[in-house]
Amino acid sequence: MKTFKAYRLEQINDEIIGSVQTLTETDLPEGEVLVKVHYSGINYKDAMANMTKSPIVKQYPFTPGIDLAGEVVESIDDRFTEGDKVIVTSYELGVSHDGGFSEYQRVKAEWVVPLPDGLTLKQAMILGTAGLTAALSVDQLEQHQMDQALPVLVTGATGGVGSISTAILKNLGYRVAAMTGKSEMHDWLMSLGAESIVDRETFMNEKPRVLDREQYAGAVEVAGGEVLSRVLTKVTYNGTVSLSGLTAGVKVPATVYPFILRGIHLAGIDSVYCPIATRKAMWHRLATDYKLTDDQFNQIGHDVIILEELSDKLPRILSGGAKGRYVVALV
Questions:
Q1: What residue ranges carry the coiled-coil annotation (predicted)?
Q2: Measured between alpha carbons, how far is 235 from 212 in angstroms, rounded to an integer?
Q3: Domain spanning 4-115+301-329 has what CATH number?
Q4: What gap in Å lies between CA 279 and CA 286, rounded to an integer?
Q5: Long-range CB contacts (< 8 A, 24+ apart) of 57-62?
Q6: Confidence (pLDDT) at 56
Q7: pLDDT of 319 strictly over 80
């Protein structure tokens, strides 16, 4: 490797400017494993990193991208050898450590997960952090037996976590009620496996109650805020709500009634620092019993882009103008 391309953020006159630059190996951060990156994926956190006055990035120049999948080129850690196919998601990648929007990246060995049999590198990045979060969310729901007579509610269903959760739940035999405010996405969600669509505006305009009719066996919840408070009141006895996001806010105007009268479980989902053993177990499930069909992979990871397109695509994530997952091809 002499030179390679990366999407770099620079601070110029109080503005953050992103561009594709040519780098050398000396530009890479410290780490035990050097990876030739084949694919990355775009996440909400990456779009936030691209903002002026970003809450994510503290030092520039910087390479964003909290996900990558590729092939080991060099390793000073005995767990990995040249040619190994690997996945790296979250931890400090793309936050305080240069990330996956680069043809090569050096990472810490303790962040690296071997690519499980049954997944390609591209499929791994169609999933990425969103897929890991979805797997953790569904796993929490399954730890408490769900009433299959009722549907499972998935909020933010057109996003990465929501769309992948919809597909996983459908494949496991659950009925899925997918919530969205985008009427143009209804057919797409149904093609992924949603049985019904819940209009977000209608859902939020209903009169709030401390306990509502038991409508859902459980929920994959990515919004937080008032959305979460309303979801909790509609889940059936002993149901679970897996919470992984805060797009509707961090304050939850809720009561204790769903918890003490219905035994509702609220499971917090952390895909950033979850233990490596849990991480490997979830990637194994994503390659086996949680695996998406080829058609679902194509539907969710329908848009494959190159580094030069990131400047255009990243702002669309913040504006809510995306569906599923953008995959960045680096080979």
A1: none
A2: 8
A3: 3.90.180.10
A4: 11
A5: 57/9, 57/16, 57/95, 58/96, 59/96, 60/9, 60/10, 60/11, 60/16, 61/8, 61/9, 61/10, 62/8, 62/9, 62/98
A6: 83
A7: no
Cα–Cα distance for residue pair 42/302, rounded to 1 Å: 13
Q: How confident is the model at residue 321 (pLDDT cuts 50, 70, 90)?
A: low
Which phi and psi (to 5°) does residue 326 adopt? -90, 130
Residues 6+ apart with CB under 8 A from 257: 210, 211, 233
R_g (Cα) of the chain, nearest Å: 20
The rounded distance, in Å, linking the Cα atoms of 164 and 170 is: 10
CA distance 313 to 321: 9
Cross-strand partners of 8: 19
What pLDDT does 181 receive? 93
Q: Which CATH class is domain 130-268?
A: alpha beta
Per-residue pLDDT at 13: 86
Alpha-carbon distance of 65 to 46, in angstroms, equals: 6
Mean pLDDT (the chain) is 95
pLDDT at 205: 94
Give domain limits for the chain. Answer: 4-115+301-329, 130-268
Q: Give the residue ranges of DSSP H helices in the chain.
A: 44-49, 121-142, 160-171, 186-192, 200-205, 225-234, 257-261, 276-287, 294-300, 310-318
Residue 116: per-residue pLDDT: 98
Looking up tokens 């030092």 gives 59
- State the Cα–Cα distance between residues 213 and 235, nearest whole angstrom: 8
Straight-line distance from the first to the last Cα atom of the chain, in angstroms, rounded to the nearest whole number = 14
d(CA 162, CA 180): 10
User: What residues contact residue 287 under an 8 Å CB cut-off, 6+ apart?
Assistant: 116, 117, 118, 119
Tell me the pTM.
0.95
Nearest C-alpha neighbor of 324 from the set 114, 115, 178? 178
Band (1; pLDDT cuts 50, 70, 90): low
- CA torsion sign for 273, 276, 281, 287 is positive
